[in-house]
Design brief:
about 35% helix; 5-stranded mixed beta sheet
């Protein structure tokens, strides 16, 4: 893969992160339509009854409902071939239902790592690990 294509993939992911940090579901949905293949392979717990880009939209709908001020800070990216790895710190305030928990008003900070595979300039596959344990501990759902 050419260095130019790797640079484009990284730029696409940066554009996606900018959209999710807008806090606007309409902007996020448009970005998903633009940057994500409709039949994207999503290897993470996703809402039942949805696949591909639609599942990603539902994930962000739920996250924004629970954490309306959610912010993804990209700490590190590694690009190689058709893949971009992003290590992130996520912050937000629990203002809506999340994982069955009523809003607590508590702030959360957690880590995540995602591997994005690109095909023809669009995200075709996502594999991710999110520190849900840290989320739930900070929200008081689990002991520290």
């Amino acid at each position: 893969m050419s260095a130019a294509r790797e640079t484009n993939n990284t730029a696409t992911l940066n554009g996606f992160h900018s959209a999710v940090n807008s806090g606007d579901l309409g902007i996020i949905s448009k970005a998903i339509d633009e940057f994500v293949a409709p039949d994207m392979d999503f290897h993470a717990p996703v809402p039942m009854g949805a696949t591909g880009a639609e599942a990603l939209k539902r994930v962000w709908e739920g996250l924004l409902r629970a954490f309306p001020d959610i912010h993804v800070a990209v700490e590190e990216t590694i690009t190689e071939g058709d893949k971009v790895v992003s290590r992130n710190t996520v912050t937000g305030t629990h203002r809506g239902e999340y994982q069955g928990l009523s809003p607590t008003g508590k702030n959360v900070t957690y880590q995540e790592i995602f591997i994005f595979r690109f095909v023809d300039g669009r995200i075709a596959e996502i594999r991710g690990i999110v520190d849900v344990l840290a989320q739930l501990r900070q929200l008081g759902a689990l002991p520290s």
